[in-house]
Protein backbone atom coordinates (compact mmCIF):
# COMPACT_ATOMS: atom_id res chain seq x y z
CA UNK A 1 0.00 0.00 0.00
CA UNK A 2 1.44 3.40 -1.02
CA UNK A 3 1.74 6.24 1.47
CA UNK A 4 -0.81 8.30 -0.52
CA UNK A 5 -3.42 5.53 -0.44
CA UNK A 6 -2.87 4.92 3.27
CA UNK A 7 -3.47 8.63 3.96
CA UNK A 8 -6.70 8.54 1.95
CA UNK A 9 -7.96 5.54 3.91
CA UNK A 10 -7.08 7.24 7.17
CA UNK A 11 -8.96 10.40 6.14
CA UNK A 12 -11.98 8.32 5.04
CA UNK A 13 -12.02 6.60 8.41
CA UNK A 14 -11.91 9.91 10.27
CA UNK A 15 -14.74 11.29 8.14
CA UNK A 16 -16.85 8.22 8.84
CA UNK A 17 -16.39 8.75 12.56
CA UNK A 18 -17.13 12.47 12.28
CA UNK A 19 -20.29 11.88 10.25
CA UNK A 20 -21.54 9.23 12.63
CA UNK A 21 -21.41 6.36 10.15
CA UNK A 22 -22.33 3.25 12.11
CA UNK A 23 -19.59 0.72 12.63
CA UNK A 24 -20.04 -2.85 11.49
CA UNK A 25 -21.90 -4.86 14.14
CA UNK A 26 -19.77 -7.11 16.31
CA UNK A 27 -20.29 -10.82 15.94
CA UNK A 28 -22.75 -12.17 18.49
CA UNK A 29 -21.34 -14.51 21.12
CA UNK A 30 -22.75 -18.00 20.79
CA UNK A 31 -24.81 -19.11 23.79
CA UNK A 32 -24.71 -22.91 24.14
CA UNK A 33 -27.42 -23.03 26.83
CA UNK A 34 -30.50 -23.45 24.56
CA UNK A 35 -28.83 -26.42 22.88
CA UNK A 36 -27.89 -27.91 26.24
CA UNK A 37 -31.49 -27.62 27.43
CA UNK A 38 -32.47 -29.67 24.40
CA UNK A 39 -29.66 -32.23 24.70
CA UNK A 40 -29.63 -32.75 28.48
CA UNK A 41 -33.22 -31.97 29.46
CA UNK A 42 -35.12 -32.88 26.26
CA UNK A 43 -36.23 -29.24 25.89
CA UNK A 44 -38.33 -29.30 29.05
CA UNK A 45 -39.45 -25.84 30.21
CA UNK A 46 -37.04 -24.04 32.53
CA UNK A 47 -38.45 -21.92 35.34
CA UNK A 48 -36.65 -19.19 37.28
CA UNK A 49 -34.95 -21.02 40.14
CA UNK A 50 -33.31 -18.20 42.08
CA UNK A 51 -35.69 -18.87 44.98
CA UNK A 52 -35.36 -22.65 44.60
CA UNK A 53 -31.70 -23.52 44.04
CA UNK A 54 -28.54 -21.56 44.80
CA UNK A 55 -25.15 -22.07 43.20
CA UNK A 56 -21.93 -20.64 44.65
CA UNK A 57 -18.60 -20.54 42.83
CA UNK A 58 -15.69 -18.08 42.79
CA UNK A 59 -16.08 -15.43 40.09
CA UNK A 60 -12.43 -16.02 39.13
CA UNK A 61 -10.95 -19.44 39.88
CA UNK A 62 -7.52 -19.73 41.47
CA UNK A 63 -7.02 -23.17 39.91
CA UNK A 64 -9.26 -24.13 36.97
CA UNK A 65 -8.74 -27.86 37.70
CA UNK A 66 -10.21 -27.71 41.22
CA UNK A 67 -12.91 -25.05 41.30
CA UNK A 68 -15.14 -25.30 44.40
CA UNK A 69 -18.91 -25.34 43.84
CA UNK A 70 -21.75 -25.47 46.36
CA UNK A 71 -25.38 -26.23 45.49
CA UNK A 72 -27.93 -25.19 48.09
CA UNK A 73 -31.70 -25.74 48.08
CA UNK A 74 -33.92 -22.83 49.14
CA UNK A 75 -37.35 -24.39 49.56
CA UNK A 76 -39.26 -23.04 52.54
CA UNK A 77 -40.18 -25.55 55.29
CA UNK A 78 -43.86 -24.89 54.55
CA UNK A 79 -43.41 -25.91 50.88
CA UNK A 80 -44.93 -29.34 50.29
CA UNK A 81 -42.62 -29.99 47.34
CA UNK A 82 -39.12 -31.45 47.64
CA UNK A 83 -36.01 -31.40 45.45
CA UNK A 84 -35.71 -34.73 43.66
CA UNK A 85 -32.50 -34.07 41.69
CA UNK A 86 -29.94 -31.35 40.94
CA UNK A 87 -28.00 -31.24 37.67
CA UNK A 88 -24.80 -29.20 37.41
CA UNK A 89 -23.99 -27.93 33.90
CA UNK A 90 -20.75 -26.14 32.96
CA UNK A 91 -21.81 -24.69 29.62
CA UNK A 92 -18.47 -24.31 27.85
CA UNK A 93 -16.86 -27.55 29.03
CA UNK A 94 -16.27 -30.31 26.44
CA UNK A 95 -18.78 -32.49 28.33
CA UNK A 96 -21.07 -29.85 29.86
CA UNK A 97 -23.05 -32.05 32.26
CA UNK A 98 -20.67 -32.21 35.20
CA UNK A 99 -22.89 -34.19 37.55
CA UNK A 100 -26.45 -35.13 38.38
CA UNK A 101 -27.30 -35.62 42.06
CA UNK A 102 -30.41 -37.63 42.89
CA UNK A 103 -31.48 -37.02 46.48
CA UNK A 104 -32.80 -39.70 48.83
CA UNK A 105 -36.52 -39.18 49.53
CA UNK A 106 -36.06 -39.17 53.31
CA UNK A 107 -32.55 -37.74 53.64
CA UNK A 108 -33.51 -34.06 53.28
CA UNK A 109 -30.22 -33.16 51.59
CA UNK A 110 -30.09 -29.36 51.39
CA UNK A 111 -26.47 -28.65 50.44
CA UNK A 112 -23.87 -30.37 48.23
CA UNK A 113 -20.30 -29.21 47.65
CA UNK A 114 -17.68 -30.61 45.30
CA UNK A 115 -14.78 -29.53 43.06
CA UNK A 116 -14.93 -29.25 39.28
CA UNK A 117 -12.82 -28.52 36.24
CA UNK A 118 -13.67 -25.41 34.22
CA UNK A 119 -12.26 -25.23 30.71
CA UNK A 120 -13.28 -21.74 29.54
CA UNK A 121 -14.92 -18.56 30.79
CA UNK A 122 -18.47 -19.83 31.14
CA UNK A 123 -21.92 -19.74 32.64
CA UNK A 124 -22.54 -22.55 35.11
CA UNK A 125 -26.15 -23.66 35.59
CA UNK A 126 -27.78 -25.54 38.45
CA UNK A 127 -31.07 -27.18 37.53
CA UNK A 128 -33.32 -28.49 40.29
CA UNK A 129 -36.07 -30.98 39.52
CA UNK A 130 -38.87 -30.80 42.06
CA UNK A 131 -41.45 -33.38 43.07
CA UNK A 132 -44.02 -31.41 41.04
CA UNK A 133 -42.13 -32.50 37.91
CA UNK A 134 -40.94 -28.98 37.03
CA UNK A 135 -37.37 -27.77 36.43
CA UNK A 136 -35.95 -24.64 38.06
CA UNK A 137 -32.64 -23.08 37.00
CA UNK A 138 -30.13 -20.57 38.36
CA UNK A 139 -26.67 -19.65 37.10
CA UNK A 140 -23.35 -17.97 37.86
CA UNK A 141 -20.49 -16.83 35.61
CA UNK A 142 -16.99 -18.16 36.24
CA UNK A 143 -13.69 -16.95 34.80
CA UNK A 144 -11.34 -19.91 34.42
CA UNK A 145 -9.62 -21.74 31.58
CA UNK A 146 -7.71 -24.94 30.87
CA UNK A 147 -9.11 -26.99 33.74
CA UNK A 148 -10.05 -30.04 31.68
CA UNK A 149 -6.59 -30.37 30.12
CA UNK A 150 -4.55 -29.46 33.22
CA UNK A 151 -1.99 -32.17 34.18
CA UNK A 152 -2.93 -34.48 37.03
CA UNK A 153 -1.64 -33.48 40.44
CA UNK A 154 -0.31 -36.96 41.17
CA UNK A 155 2.02 -39.19 39.18
CA UNK A 156 0.77 -42.43 37.65
CA UNK A 157 2.15 -44.72 40.37
CA UNK A 158 0.74 -42.59 43.18
CA UNK A 159 -2.65 -42.46 41.46
CA UNK A 160 -2.68 -46.26 41.08
CA UNK A 161 -1.82 -46.75 44.75
CA UNK A 162 -4.70 -44.49 45.79
CA UNK A 163 -7.22 -45.89 43.32
CA UNK A 164 -10.52 -46.61 45.03
CA UNK A 165 -9.44 -45.59 48.52
CA UNK A 166 -12.47 -44.09 50.25
CA UNK A 167 -12.70 -41.83 53.28
CA UNK A 168 -15.71 -40.61 55.21
CA UNK A 169 -15.89 -37.67 57.60
CA UNK A 170 -18.73 -36.68 59.90
CA UNK A 171 -18.74 -33.01 60.95
CA UNK A 172 -21.64 -32.76 63.40
CA UNK A 173 -20.57 -32.94 67.03
CA UNK A 174 -22.56 -34.99 69.51
CA UNK A 175 -23.55 -31.94 71.55
CA UNK A 176 -25.28 -30.34 68.56
CA UNK A 177 -28.50 -32.31 68.87
CA UNK A 178 -30.21 -35.70 68.80
CA UNK A 179 -29.66 -38.44 66.24
CA UNK A 180 -32.39 -36.99 64.03
CA UNK A 181 -30.69 -33.57 63.66
CA UNK A 182 -29.19 -32.15 60.50
CA UNK A 183 -25.64 -33.36 59.95
CA UNK A 184 -22.80 -32.71 57.55
CA UNK A 185 -20.66 -35.43 56.02
CA UNK A 186 -18.01 -35.89 53.34
CA UNK A 187 -17.07 -38.77 51.06
CA UNK A 188 -13.64 -38.73 49.34
CA UNK A 189 -12.50 -41.20 46.66
CA UNK A 190 -8.93 -41.68 45.48
CA UNK A 191 -9.18 -41.61 41.68
CA UNK A 192 -7.35 -39.73 38.87
CA UNK A 193 -10.65 -38.89 37.14
CA UNK A 194 -8.80 -38.42 33.86
CA UNK A 195 -10.74 -36.18 31.49
CA UNK A 196 -9.39 -37.59 28.23
CA UNK A 197 -7.95 -34.14 27.39
CA UNK A 198 -4.75 -34.38 29.44
CA UNK A 199 -1.43 -35.20 27.79
CA UNK A 200 1.08 -37.70 29.15
CA UNK A 201 4.24 -35.65 29.71
CA UNK A 202 6.44 -38.62 28.71
CA UNK A 203 4.69 -40.06 25.65
CA UNK A 204 3.00 -36.77 24.60
CA UNK A 205 -0.15 -38.79 23.91
CA UNK A 206 -3.59 -38.09 25.30
CA UNK A 207 -4.40 -40.00 28.49
CA UNK A 208 -7.66 -41.93 27.98
CA UNK A 209 -10.71 -40.75 29.90
CA UNK A 210 -11.05 -42.67 33.16
CA UNK A 211 -13.36 -41.34 35.85
CA UNK A 212 -15.90 -42.13 38.55
CA UNK A 213 -19.28 -42.15 36.83
CA UNK A 214 -21.45 -43.41 39.71
CA UNK A 215 -21.53 -42.83 43.45
CA UNK A 216 -24.20 -44.14 45.83
CA UNK A 217 -24.41 -43.19 49.50
CA UNK A 218 -26.65 -44.73 52.17
CA UNK A 219 -27.23 -44.36 55.92
CA UNK A 220 -27.86 -47.98 56.86
CA UNK A 221 -30.10 -49.06 53.93
CA UNK A 222 -31.74 -45.68 53.34
CA UNK A 223 -30.41 -43.77 50.29
CA UNK A 224 -28.90 -40.35 50.97
CA UNK A 225 -27.80 -39.36 47.47
CA UNK A 226 -26.59 -40.72 44.15
CA UNK A 227 -24.19 -38.95 41.81
CA UNK A 228 -23.89 -39.52 38.08
CA UNK A 229 -20.50 -37.98 37.31
CA UNK A 230 -18.56 -36.91 34.22
CA UNK A 231 -15.11 -35.67 33.23
CA UNK A 232 -15.69 -32.27 34.84
CA UNK A 233 -15.44 -33.65 38.39
CA UNK A 234 -11.92 -33.00 39.67
CA UNK A 235 -9.24 -35.55 40.50
CA UNK A 236 -9.93 -37.44 43.77
CA UNK A 237 -13.72 -36.75 43.83
CA UNK A 238 -14.82 -35.07 47.02
CA UNK A 239 -18.52 -34.75 47.89
CA UNK A 240 -19.60 -32.85 51.01
CA UNK A 241 -23.29 -32.67 51.92
CA UNK A 242 -25.85 -32.02 54.62
CA UNK A 243 -28.56 -34.52 55.49
CA UNK A 244 -30.96 -35.45 58.26
CA UNK A 245 -29.93 -38.52 60.23
CA UNK A 246 -32.47 -41.30 60.65
CA UNK A 247 -30.55 -42.67 63.62
CA UNK A 248 -28.49 -45.01 61.44
CA UNK A 249 -25.39 -46.56 62.97
CA UNK A 250 -23.54 -47.04 59.69
CA UNK A 251 -22.75 -45.04 56.57
CA UNK A 252 -22.05 -46.83 53.31
CA UNK A 253 -20.75 -45.74 49.91
CA UNK A 254 -20.30 -47.50 46.58
CA UNK A 255 -18.51 -45.98 43.58
CA UNK A 256 -18.08 -47.23 40.02
CA UNK A 257 -15.73 -45.96 37.32
CA UNK A 258 -15.67 -46.10 33.53
CA UNK A 259 -13.34 -49.12 33.53
CA UNK A 260 -15.87 -51.18 35.50
CA UNK A 261 -14.14 -51.04 38.88
CA UNK A 262 -16.44 -51.08 41.91
CA UNK A 263 -15.28 -49.56 45.20
CA UNK A 264 -17.29 -49.76 48.40
CA UNK A 265 -16.80 -49.10 52.07
CA UNK A 266 -18.81 -48.90 55.27
CA UNK A 267 -18.13 -46.80 58.37
CA UNK A 268 -19.62 -46.31 61.80
CA UNK A 269 -21.46 -42.98 61.82
CA UNK A 270 -20.01 -41.80 65.13
CA UNK A 271 -16.47 -43.10 64.53
CA UNK A 272 -15.89 -42.87 60.77
CA UNK A 273 -12.11 -43.20 60.50
CA UNK A 274 -10.88 -44.29 57.08
TrEMBL record:
InterPro entries: Fuse-rel_SoxYZ, Ig-like_fold, Ig_E-set, SoxY, SoxY_sf, SoxZ_dom
Keywords, sorted A to Z: Signal
Species of provenance: Bradyrhizobium quebecense
Domain Ig-like SoxY: 38-148
Keyword flag Signal: yes
Signal peptide region: 1-26
Protein name: Quinoprotein dehydrogenase-associated SoxYZ-like carrier
Domain Sulphur oxidation protein SoxZ: 181-267
Chain ranges passing through the membrane: none
